[in-house]
Amino acid sequence: MTSPAETAAASADAVRFEHVGLTLGENRILDDICAHVPRGKFTAIVGPNGAGKTTLTLAILGQIRHTGKVLFPGLDEAGRKPRFGFVPQRLVFDRDIPMTVMDYLLSGLQHMPLFLGHSKRHVERIMRYLDEVECTALADHAFGALSGGEIQRVLLAQALLQEPDILILDEPTSGVDFKGGLICCELLRRVREKRGFTQIMISHDLATVTAHADHVICLNHKVFGEGEPRVALTHQVLSETFGLHLGLPDLHGIPQDVRECPENCPLRNEHLHLHDHCHIDGAHGCSCGHGHAHDPAHGHPHDHGTEGAHAE
Question: Element (H or E) spanning 6, and its range?
Fold first, then answer.
């Protein structure tokens, strides 16, 4: 007889969306969502603000009513609900509360009031998870004195304490600098590979998604594309997802076809010169930081205006 663990492992998908829909008032938030999340991998959900990304994660968590089905292959057949871990984009709390990192993490584990003492068993377990996210030194620090990046690590440790099957993160790198974001992604990769959970992350950072994600879902109320990022994030998919004027904050690391004019662009020679001026190449993108995106339907460049101009 197949065990529940073997049944779950036999499925290639951790989550499957079948015609998921949600309407609030007259607004269609999710429209016939059909997509999947590969098991044990890093899936990024990308799209503009208001696209329904957070609503879709609430559907995964079972916190919002919707039409269609959200399935957890393997676990459903085994009769077990998935365990979730969740890392919010930011934590709103009173920084003046006299509470250490250990106090904060213990408050979610032990039933005994903290002023009566700390459970040795829980303390040891917390220290193991703090070690995994490389911040054991913060255990006795005041929680309110931590930096944004340090708080994100503590929140990650808190989520991992749930021993999740699925870890959901809402823009975890938005409050940290580039180096901090890189460290965060590499840290998550190491922990995911060790623990074997499935990682789902909401993100606007296409460079991070392309560099680190295994799978991407492009969402703007409906799914415009999904798959391996360097294959799925085509010019057409990004235009359909984000609109004609992409307004991308950073094009470093995203597919070459998104940064180059289509061959039928009537101003291709001029824009190749502009790209050369900006030192664009496949590995590093445009050093000026501006996105030279074009309309795939018409082959014309979008209006760069003064943002795209270069002072000679």
Answer: helix 4-10
Quickly tell me which residue has 């496949």 as its tokens: 282
- Report the predicted TM-score, pTM, of the whole model to 2 decimal places: 0.73
Q: Check the CA dihedral 180-284-211-308 and report its sign.
A: positive
Smallest Cα–Cα separation from 36: which of 78, 10, 70, 64?
Answer: 70
**Is the CA virtual torsion 20, 25, 28, 30 positive or negative?**
negative
Q: How many residues does the chain have?
A: 312
Give the β-pairing of 215-219 and 198-203. Answer: unpaired
When pLDDT is averaged across residues 44-72 and rounded to a whole number, the result is: 95
Q: Are 308 and 292 in contact (CB under 8 A)?
A: yes
CA angle 264/270/274 to nearest 5° reads 120
Contact between 20 and 69 under an 8 Å Cβ cutoff? The reply is: yes
Tally Cβ neighbours within 10 Å of residue 94: 7
Burial category of 247 from C-beta neighbours within 10 Å (exposed 0-12, middle 13-18, buried 19 and up): exposed
Taking the CA of residue 295 as centre, how many other CA atoms within 13 Å lie in the half-sphere pointing to its CB?
12
At position 122, the amino acid (one-letter code) is H
pLDDT digits (tens, 9 = 90+) for 87-135: 988 788 888 889 999 999 998 887 777 767 788 889 999 999 999 999 9
Say which residues have a Cβ less than 8 Å from residue 84's Cβ, sequence separation at least 6.
60, 61, 162, 164, 165, 166, 167, 168
Phi, psi of 98 (to 5 degrees): -75, 85
Task: Classify residue 186 by burial, with Cβ atoms within 10 Å: 0-12, 13-18, 19+.
Answer: exposed
pLDDT higher at 30 or 120: 30
User: pLDDT tens across 196-235, in order?
Assistant: 999 999 988 888 898 899 999 999 999 999 999 989 999 8
pLDDT at position 16 over 80: yes
